[in-house]
């Protein structure tokens, strides 16, 4: 493993760079922008288009290889893989939509879309795992910020699509093919393991508040400019100026390390976090203080290294245990570090997976079909719907991280209670969609965007708090598999099928009216009802864990996490 980057400034440099990578990672939300052109150019029906939407979700959420790679390689390796697959996948899609290559088969485009969006899992896993370990005492806040910027990315891409690319799907795909690799290669050097920032330092709280405020300012700006673009005819010059301001706002988090450089605080002797979920201090090999603190106690003579040696057989371990040379390793408790195999047999693991599956899966079904839903309900310009969803998705992610962090520290309320509240609101949103009442489309989209963001922002810190940070990349990416599976069931097999049947009844080239998706919305509402019940059960089960972890108002790192 590479040596840690020491000092209080590097983690904030890495967080600022991660913002740009997260915006690039949000390419998964651009599917509604080019799906109509893909359908027209390739002559697909709605069912085929929804299957491609499922491919979009499959690629995004096959992240277990990225999680394994994060445990074995430095972040730049994982980022490099993401860059390569994005270039290849979107390159093939650009060849198809631009008609540079004619008559590409459906199966090839399905694979290309899986590959293209799979780059997001590599990029997102690298920056999320690295920053969660760099800020282990502020997991909810960090997850909310990073996932919030992904939520904003749809609006960022929409701005670029409408103001710079002339609403050309082929230009957008070329931009994704070349732009994502360039951004990630530029940021790669700054995303690295660092000495964890101290959560007890008041400046850390101020810096997080600044980052959150900067992201909110960006969100408001994006929503405002999207509305202006929709109601006014802006010249190219004004459009480019607006894009330049957006870029400046995206650079705002870099102000933190710049301020720390120009106005350094009084230096304090850093105290490594001992017994942390990833033993981060152990990687800084040239620190004698760290080494002395990590010397095993006499009651457990080098137990960890004995068990971690791959060359020691089980028979040798049993003999050593019998002779009293070592103590038998106990199974981890919730709140300590679990391996994937240890976590996957726990009831809480599958409860969290199911809650996430039902909440995010139902939300992504609407997202994949948002353009068609808008047209069916009488909206001509569906980019406004996408921007509204993006803005509210961001609010849900950022707000869930901050609000859950406050209540978990002040009241030890498990974060999963917010997943229950969110899914109750999602039921209301789906019923509004199904009603087809004039004026409810935007309200339903806003509510759904917020609640969709809440599910994502809550699952991430909960997984790390229940099962530790050591194998967090693998565990969190396995949780993410609920997204494409639900998209396949609810979007590919349900929504597309219902839409095509109603379209055939109407005898037109597209389906119009609330009946196009009404049955789908009723099914999604019932799924969220089930998800609410399961999230309440999970909250009750893990309440003691949060009382243990956050007793005294701050996160307590287990001293028995080393295994």
TrEMBL record:
Keywords recorded for this protein, A-Z: Membrane, Transmembrane, Transmembrane helix
Transmembrane segments: 12-34, 76-95, 107-129, 141-160, 172-191, 203-223, 238-258, 350-371, 383-404, 416-435, 441-462, 474-499, 519-540
An example Gene Ontology CC term for this record: membrane
Gene3D superfamilies: MFS general substrate transporter like domains
Principal subcellular localization: membrane
Record localization: Membrane
InterPro entries: MFS_trans_sf, NFD4_C, Nodulin-like
Membrane topology per record: Multi-pass membrane protein
Pfam families assigned to the protein according to its UniProt record, in alphabetical order: NFD4_C (PF23262), Nodulin-like (PF06813)
Database matches in SUPFAM superfamilies: MFS general substrate transporter
Residue ranges constituting the NFD4 C-terminal domain according to the UniProt record: 345-545
Boundaries of every Nodulin-like domain copy: 11-258
PANTHER family hit by this protein: MAJOR FACILITATOR SUPERFAMILY PROTEIN (PTHR21576:SF97), UNCHARACTERIZED NODULIN-LIKE PROTEIN (PTHR21576)
UniProt record similarity statement: Belongs to the major facilitator superfamily. Phosphate:H(+) symporter (TC 2.A.1.9) family.
Protein name in UniProt: Nodulin-like domain-containing protein
Organism per entry: Rhododendron griersonianum
Taxonomic lineage of the native organism: Eukaryota, Viridiplantae, Streptophyta, Embryophyta, Tracheophyta
């Amino acid at each position: 493993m590479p040596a840690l980057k020491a000092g209080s400034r590097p983690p904030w440099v890495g967080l600022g760079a991660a913002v740009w990578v997260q915006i690039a990672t949000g390419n998964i939300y651009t599917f509604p922008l080019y799906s109509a052109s893909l359908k027209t150019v390739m002559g697909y029906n709605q069912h085929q288009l929804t299957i491609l939407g499922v491919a979009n979700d499959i690629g995004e959420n096959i992240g277990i290889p990225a999680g394994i790679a994060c445990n074995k390689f430095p972040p730049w390796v994982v980022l490099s893989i993401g860059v390569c697959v994005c270039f290849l996948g979107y390159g093939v899609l650009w060849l198809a939509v631009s008609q540079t290559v004619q008559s590409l088969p459906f199966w090839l485009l399905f694979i290309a879309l899986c590959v293209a969006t799979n780059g997001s899992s590599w990029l997102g896993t690298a920056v999320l795992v690295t920053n969660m370990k760099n800020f282990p005492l502020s997991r909810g806040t960090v997850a909310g910020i990073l996932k919030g910027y992904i939520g904003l990315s749809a609006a960022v891409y929409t701005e670029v699509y409408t103001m710079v690319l002339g609403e050309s799907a082929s230009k957008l795909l070329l931009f994704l093919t070349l732009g994502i690799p360039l951004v990630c290669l530029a940021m790669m050097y700054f995303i690295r393991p660092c000495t964890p920032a101290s959560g007890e330092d008041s400046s850390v709280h101020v810096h997080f508040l600044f980052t959150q405020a900067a992201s909110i300012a960006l969100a408001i700006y994006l929503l405002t400019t999207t509305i202006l673009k929709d109601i006014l005819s802006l010249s190219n010059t004004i459009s480019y100026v607006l894009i330049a301001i957006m870029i400046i706002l995206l650079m705002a988090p870099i102000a933190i390390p710049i301020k720390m450089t120009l106005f350094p605080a009084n230096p304090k002797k850093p105290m490594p976090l001992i017994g942390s979920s990833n033993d981060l201090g152990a990687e800084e090999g040239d620190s004698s203080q760290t080494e002395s603190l990590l010397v095993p106690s006499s009651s457990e003579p080098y137990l960890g290294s004995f068990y971690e040696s791959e060359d020691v057989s089980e028979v040798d371990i049993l003999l050593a245990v019998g002779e009293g040379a070592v103590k038998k390793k106990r199974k981890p408790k919730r709140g300590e570090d679990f391996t994937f195999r240890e976590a996957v047999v726990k009831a809480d693991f599958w409860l969290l997976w199911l809650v996430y599956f039902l909440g995010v899966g139902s939300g992504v079904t609407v997202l994949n079909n948002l353009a068609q839903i808008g047209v069916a309900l009488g909206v001509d310009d569906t980019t406004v719907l996408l921007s509204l969803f993006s803005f509210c998705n961001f609010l849900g992610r950022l707000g869930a991280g901050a609000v859950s962090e406050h209540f978990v520290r002040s009241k030890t309320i498990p974060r999963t209670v917010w997943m229950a509240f969110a899914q109750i609101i999602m039921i209301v949103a789906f019923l509004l969609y199904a009603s087809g009442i004039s004026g409810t489309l935007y309200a339903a989209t806003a509510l759904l965007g917020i609640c969709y963001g809440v599910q994502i922002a809550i699952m991430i810190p909960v997984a790390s708090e229940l099962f530790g940070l050591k194998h967090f990349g693998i565990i969190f990416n396995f949780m993410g598999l609920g997204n494409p599976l639900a998209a396949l069931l609810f979007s590919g097999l349900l929504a597309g099928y219902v839409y095509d049947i109603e379209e055939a009844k109407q005898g037109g080239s597209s389906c119009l009216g609330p009946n196009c998706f009404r049955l789908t919305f009723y099914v999604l509402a019932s799924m969220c009802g089930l998800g609410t019940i399961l999230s309440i059960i999970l909250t009750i089960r893990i309440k003691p864990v949060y009382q243990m972890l956050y007793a005294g108002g701050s996160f307590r790192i287990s001293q028995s996490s080393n295994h």
